[in-house]
Write a structure and sequence with these properties.
A hairpin with a 5-residue loop joins strand 7 (89-95) and strand 8 (101-105). By secondary structure, the protein is of the alpha+beta class.
């Protein structure tokens, strides 16, 4: 958290929190709802994408969760709760300086190690790590699925094609032949069980 934010919290400790002003899309875009009608209102606003790199960076540095799994942006002394259209972290895949594949969050942080993967009925791929729950951005879904291998090194094609796939162990292939990735459980997850299983609140 930024020093200026910590100072503002200390100076004004009892500023009420707000809801309905900020959301995070399933593609990792921050959206501002300028009239505070971001969710649970009859005239809900679709929101405006925030494009300023300075503001995006400020939100990302001061983006946290409380003990109840509600994610928020600490805007100076005020807590701004975030509507999550996918998960707290939206994940993509890129390569590090050595050309090895890695998962990155929408805020530019490395994500992992993953301790569990889930696939929901709509084809969304979720992950969990010590940082919290993540959803793979649909634009990078193919790359991540291609990088996932069964415990014996096979692609996941056969598993996806089973009429009733059971849980398996997978590893994320980084492309480094000298790296042995940890095996991680992967299974199916009902759409209505995502929040409870991964421990976050979409509408805080």
């Amino acid at each position: 958290m930024d020093d200026q934010v910590l100072a503002a919290m200390a100076r004004w400790p009892n500023v009420p929190a707000v809801r309905g002003w900020l959301s995070l899309s399933a593609r990792g875009q921050w959206r501002l709802h300028p009239h505070g009608r971001g969710w649970d209102t009859p005239d809900e606003e679709p929101g405006e994408t925030i494009s300023s790199p300075q503001i995006i960076g400020f939100i990302g540095r001061n983006y946290l969760a409380d003990d109840a799994g509600r994610w928020f942006f600490q805007n100076g002394p005020q807590r701004v709760y975030v509507r999550l259209d996918g998960a707290p972290w939206i994940l993509g895949m890129d390569a590090d300086a050595q050309g090895r594949s890695r998962l990155r969050t929408h805020t530019g942080q490395d994500y992992g190690p993953v301790d569990h993967w889930w696939l929901d009925p709509g084809g969304r791929l979720y992950a969990r790590s010590a940082a919290g729950a993540g959803l793979v951005n649909d634009r990078d879904l193919g790359r991540v699925v291609d990088a996932l291998r069964t415990a014996d090194g096979q692609p996941l094609d056969d598993w996806f094609e089973r009429p009733d796939p059971a849980g398996i162990s997978v590893r994320l292939d980084s492309g480094d032949p000298g790296c042995s990735a940890a095996r991680t459980p992967m299974g199916l997850l009902a759409a209505d069980a995502v929040e409870a299983t991964l421990g976050f609140v979409r509408l805080p």
